[in-house]
Structures are given as C-alpha cells and as structure tokens.
User: Which sequence fits this backbone?
C-alpha cells in the first residue's frame, strides 16, 4: 500500500488523529519487525510515514497492514526493489525508476553457463545452488559417458 500525502493537509491529519495512533515501539512489537526495518521501509516508500512526526510519532493499523503486505511479498520470493516497483504501479505511479540488474554467471560445463539474477532471497539462492550442482554433475557424467547423451 503506497500513500501520497498532501503536505498542505498533513498538519490537519496529524492533529485530527493525534492520540489515536501507536508508537514506533508498539508498531514494532505488533508487526514483529524491528524499528530500524520499519524506518527503512518508510525511507523506501514501502509504507507511509507516521501520521504524526517527531518524538511522539504515531502510526496506525494501516502501517501494520502495510508491513504485513511487504513481509508476505518477501516470503513469496520478491525483493524489496520488486515490491517497491509493484506498489508504485498499483498506486498508478508511472514514473517507476528503471534500475540496473546484476547477474551472476556460473560456468558449469565447457559449453554451458547459467545466469542468475543477483539479489534473490537466501532460500531461493540455496535452491538454485542445489539445482546448479545437480545439473553440473549430470553434465559431467554425460561427458564421461557420451553414449548416454542426447535423449
């Protein structure tokens, strides 16, 4: 969920909702996400900033829902950059920045390389490494016994 705030009305919103929100510490406890991570999500635009800023910053149930959505998308294998892009598109922001991608290249046989986009989640990397090892072993076995090749 991406929120856009009219700076002119921000003061009105903060004062009208003052006292109804939760603190950053409470938000961290309720969401199960550290305060530092919540601040990072806000800086990336993954969740909105507090409804009231400063020392007594206040957050709402919408912030908890936003954090839960980000975590759900991450658990599905999406990177924060992908989530940021998806949320911007859902909000109708067509000014999504084009970001460069980095790729790792694994040479697993003299005639075979595998390219993998970097920035994947740790569990996805573990799956890929295992699959690449199996493929490399199969290719090596076929090189040792060429009659077993081309099915």
Assistant:
């Amino acid at each position: 969920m991406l929120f856009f705030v009219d700076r002119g009305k921000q003061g009105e919103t903060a004062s009208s909702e003052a006292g109804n929100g939760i603190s950053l510490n409470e938000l961290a406890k309720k969401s199960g996400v550290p305060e530092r991570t919540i601040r990072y999500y806000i800086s990336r635009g993954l969740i909105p900033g507090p409804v009231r800023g400063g020392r007594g910053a206040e957050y709402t149930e919408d912030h908890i829902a936003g954090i839960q959505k980000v975590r759900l998308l991450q658990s599905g294998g999406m990177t924060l950059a992908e989530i940021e892009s998806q949320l911007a598109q859902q909000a109708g922001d067509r000014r999504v920045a084009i970001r460069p991608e980095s790729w790792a290249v694994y040479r697993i046989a003299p005639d075979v390389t595998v390219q993998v986009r970097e920035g994947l989640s740790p569990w996805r990397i573990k799956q890929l490494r295992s699959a690449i090892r199996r493929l490399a072993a199969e290719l090596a076995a076929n090189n040792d016994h060429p009659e077993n090749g081309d099915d």
Q: What stands out?
A: The CA atoms of residues 71 and 84 lie 12 Å apart.
